[in-house]
């Protein structure tokens, strides 16, 4: 067993337990966007950062990928941690202002505005779709390409996928896809997810007849209302 301290509370966990798992077990909430049960930890969104150790040795680490260590001291909600999470949420809001998931996280952390250049429905490179396709669908139809600001998600060698089963799993887990229909103006309500007009992360021409299965879809309901349905 590994003995560590989380927010002043001493705890023993099995070897191989992550800080996120240990904190969740104790009831200390740690927000995360790229972590999902059944998928390998990735640490891409950085929302789950916690502070370990104390004084000049203190540093921020991603709790979903950092394993518990003997004698480790962890703070899940220090001022430094909260400040970092708010900054990350501002960046996410700049990329995906219509994501209901990101909006809810921002609201929970009292983020009222973001200070960065505004974009719309862009990929935040959380890796959920890539891991879902590889680890659950066993397809590897999509993956990361490029580096830095040129990093994108797409099919290998930028060619049409021959192994994609059109399951829609990538869209189902994508925080940029899920519940994006947040406009209150009917002419702007179509997110393109259900109609497969413009998925935010993948090129439509390489995934013919791609379907997502978002439920409920607000844009569909608005169209029904406008058509007298």
Description:
By secondary structure, the protein is α+β, with helices and mostly antiparallel strands. The protein is built from six helices and seven strands; from the N terminus they run E-E-H-E-E-E-H-H-H-E-E-H-H. The strands form two sheets. A five-stranded mixed beta sheet has the order 2-1-5-3-4, with helices on both faces. Strands 6-7 form a two-stranded antiparallel ribbon. A hairpin with a 6-residue loop joins strand 3 and strand 4. About 12% of the residues have low confidence.
Task: Output the keywords.
single chain; 229 residues; alpha+beta; Ubiquitin-like (UB roll); Alpha-Beta Plaits; 2 domains; 6 helices; globular
List the uncertain runs.
Answer: 179-200, 210-214
CATH class of the largest domain: Alpha Beta
Q: Kindly state the percentage of residues in helix.
A: 10-25%
The structural class is alpha+beta
Number of alpha- plus pi-helical segments: 6
Domain tally: 2
**Beta fraction:** 5-15%
How do the strands of the widest beta sheet line up side by side? 2-1-5-3-4
* Shape by Cα distribution: globular
DSSP, total strands? 7
Mean pLDDT metric: 81
* Major beta sheet summary: 5 strands, mixed
Distance between the termini: 60 Å
SSE string, helix = H, strand = E?
A: EEHEEEHHHEEHH
Rg, please? Answer: 20 Å
Q: Predict the CATH topology of the largest domain.
A: Ubiquitin-like (UB roll)
Which architecture of the largest domain would the CATH scheme give at its second level? Roll
